[in-house]
Specification:
This protein has 9 helices and 7 strands; from the N terminus they run αααβαβαββαβααβαβ. It has 243 residues and is of the alpha/beta class.
Length: 243
């Protein structure tokens, strides 16, 4: 059996170094995109995320957006749900480019600056694919959620990585920077291990053209062709917390 003690120190240090390099590359990537990110972001995808969040997070009164970027979704949820909202993002440049109200902070998703069970709703859009250890982020999300609290999460589907790479190559989507897409099975298992109970995991359609007006027709299309989407959409609840 291989244990932590049996792994040479050099190998463990190399892993930490690689993770640090990845985080530095991701930070540089988003610092470069930040100035016009909101203007270039996919309007169709943003509207899809808003509609899906309204379906799942409506009962929530205290919502955290993990990886909130330029805060577009944060502002929409505050407006539409009249909830108290907070947002965190590792990129200060992205936060500076937003118009977020409520509370926003520069913080790593692996170390959220909030107490246990502080929120009854969490949303995280297109973050996990940029994280070296997605399970750590999901455990932090579970930690800050109260028992029965709700999570809405989107991340690109590894099953459609070829199409997503093609779309980026032809500038139909913003460049990803460092990433690793997850399969549906990986996402569900990671959520369960973190203490979350998946309610539904399906794929949603994110179209590079058409804007907001195509968001509702795309939802109708997915009902007839469930596997058509390139984005995993996970809804989950915080498992019961032992007293």
């Amino acid at each position: 059996m291989v244990t932590a003690a049996s792994v040479p120190a050099r190998s463990k240090n190399a892993g930490k170094l690689n993770q640090a390099r990845r985080e530095a590359r991701t930070a540089a990537h988003y610092a470069q995109l930040a100035a016009d990110y909101a203007a270039r972001a996919n309007a169709h995808a943003n509207e899809r995320y808003r509609l899906e969040c309204l379906d799942w997070l409506t009962p929530c009164r205290r919502i955290l957006d993990v990886g909130c970027g330029t805060t577009n979704l944060l502002v929409a949820l505050q407006r539409d749900l009249r909830a108290a909202v907070c947002g965190v993002d590792a990129s200060s440049a992205m936060l500076a480019g937003g118009s977020g109200r409520g509370y926003v902070a520069a913080a790593r998703a692996e170390q959220l600056p909030f107490g246990d069970h502080a929120f009854d709703g969490v949303v995280s859009i297109n973050l996990l694919e940029h994280i070296a250890e997605p399970g750590r982020v999901l455990r932090e999300i579970a930690r800050v959620l109260q028992s029965g609290g709700r999570l809405a999460l989107a991340t690109p589907a590894a099953e459609w990585s070829g199409l997503l790479d093609w779309a980026e190559r032809f500038r139909l989507k913003l460049p990803e920077g460092p990433y690793r897409f997850l399969t549906q099975a990986e996402l569900i298992e990671s959520a369960r291990r973190a203490g979350l109970s998946p309610v539904m995991c399906r794929r949603i359609l994110s179209m590079p053209i058409g804007g907001k007006r195509w968001a509702r027709p795309a939802r109708d299309l997915e009902r007839g062709i469930p596997s058509v989407g390139s984005i995993h959409w996970l809804t989950a609840e915080r498992s019961a917390i032992a007293e």
